[in-house]
Design brief:
- A hairpin with a 2-residue loop joins strand 5 and strand 6.
- This protein has helices at about 10-25, 40-45, 50-60, 90-95, 115-120, 165, 170-175, 195-200; strands at about 65-70, 70-75, 80-85, 100-110, 130-140, 140-150, 180-190, 210-220, 225-230, 235-240.
- The N and C termini lie far apart (about 50 Å).
- With about 240 residues, it is of the alpha+beta class.
- The radius of gyration is 23 Å and the shape is elongated.
- The chain has a 6-stranded antiparallel β-sheet with strand order 4-5-6-9-8-7. Strands 1-2 form a two-stranded antiparallel ribbon.
């Protein structure tokens, strides 16, 4: 532990907060690890429990700690934040940020388009679409159920292709077929995890998830892809860059 007495001019709660942050980021306190009780921690730092709580509240606000009511305080798992201001390759962007990412293909099939999918892709209900369902994994934790649909007519060879190589960069694949994606329209809302979603994301049923629907378009306004995403509410966040006109 850092010599707190050498930083006497700094308020106690800041010194403790910074020391706990250092221990988390260095790996001394492991992701998912339960912290000692407030009584034990306050005694080890030589401060009141009120001072300790102030330090821990700051770290909870930062997303480095979280509390389970009646259980204790834990070091948060690696949080995954995505910038949704621009269309980006999930895998390349994650690796550039130093994250270990992987993907599990759950389903690859050709099915009749349901009404919502058909409307989004400007198809007739029942037209054939390719369904691509994958589980995205970041730092060993399942983060996102990614379920994308495209027109079978536009991408007739997709279902017969090596999807494990294509799935890592679908935007490049669409462009190779003559459909360069230039914009997207998406909607986000908070939902509770249904049983199948909870099982795949390794969370409790009814736990919070960030749900997303998105349609991708070419510059000419041709719809290319429609998708549903279920993202873990405890590990996934989104950022938008806003500017005034």
């Amino acid at each position: 532990m850092e010599d707190l007495n050498s930083l006497a001019s700094v308020p106690q709660y800041i010194r403790i907060r910074d020391d706990l942050r250092r221990r988390i980021l260095s790996g001394e306190l492991s992701r998912g690890e339960k912290l000692p009780s407030e009584e034990d921690l306050s005694a080890s730092y030589g401060v009141s429990r009120m001072t300790l709580r102030q330090s821990m509240t700051d770290l909870i606000d930062e997303g480095l700690l979280y509390r389970k009511h009646g259980v204790g305080t834990f070091v948060a798992l690696q949080h995954f934040a995505r910038d949704h201001s621009n269309l980006q390759n999930f895998f390349e962007n994650s690796r550039q940020n130093g994250l270990v990412v992987d993907e599990q293909v759950l389903e690859m099939s050709v099915i009749p388009a349901r009404l919502q999918v058909a409307k989004a892709l400007d198809l007739a209900e029942g037209d054939q679409v390719v369904r691509m369902k994958t589980l995205r994994i970041v730092e060993g934790n399942p983060i996102t159920i990614h379920e994308a649909y495209v027109s079978q007519e536009k991408f007739s060879d997709l279902a017969e292709s090596d999807f494990t190589s294509i799935s890592k960069d679908l935007l490049a694949y669409y462009e190779s077929c003559g459909y360069k994606v230039r914009r997207g329209v998406q909607r986000l809302d908070a939902r509770s995890a249904e049983p199948d979603v909870a099982r795949l994301l390794d969370i409790e049923e009814d736990a919070p998830v960030l749900y997303k629907e998105r349609t991708l378009y070419t510059e000419e306004g041709i719809p290319v892809e429609f998708l549903y995403c279920h993202n873990r509410g405890d590990l996934y966040s989104v950022t938008f860059i806003l500017s005034a006109k």
